[in-house]
Amino acid sequence: ARLEKEVKSLKDQLMRSLAEQENTRRIAKRDVSDAKQFAIKSFSKSLLDSADNLERALDAVPEDLRTDSENHPVLVTLYEGIKMTESGLNKAFEMNGLKRFGGIGEVFDPNKHEALFEYADPSRDAGTVGQIMKSGFTLNDRVLRPAEVGVVKKED
């Protein structure tokens, strides 16, 4: 009876040990996977300012001058070059799991948006994004930088 009790105890210890090993293996596998997915996080974050600057540069060129190659050929060429650079950067972002988000009309989500201000706008629903100051980005479906937005508030 004593030996059976000891065998039962040792068997229990063995099963617990095997379960612990399996848990450790699973956790290590998850950690390696996360490390692979998010290894470029700090590098990606540092490039977001460059993406913002390219977007601002494109927005700074008046729409009527963007295609006026007869009167402003240098500006048209510069605009096209900046647009190509931004497009290449966005493709590189997407290939590495970095996606831009934040659109006008989206429902405000505090997990994805950072409200910089509220304003009244009768043409939009309250609690939605009305203006975007900076686009947000996700890295493999995890928010890397929240979108900086203006939110439509209820009219008084």
Automatic annotation (TrEMBL):
Keyword rRNA-binding among record annotations: no
PROSITE patterns in alphabetical order: GRPE
GO biological process, one term: protein folding
UniProt keyword Mitochondrion, yes or no: yes
CC annotations in GO: PAM complex, Tim23 associated import motor
Chief location: mitochondrion
Coiled coil, from the record: none
Subcellular location(s) of the protein: Mitochondrion matrix
Single annotated GO MF: protein-folding chaperone binding
Keyword line: Chaperone, Mitochondrion
InterPro entries to which the protein is assigned, alphabetical: GrpE, GrpE_CC, GrpE_head
Recorded family membership: Belongs to the GrpE family.
Purpose of the protein: Essential component of the PAM complex, a complex required for the translocation of transit peptide-containing proteins from the inner membrane into the mitochondrial matrix in an ATP-dependent manner.
Full protein name: GrpE protein homolog
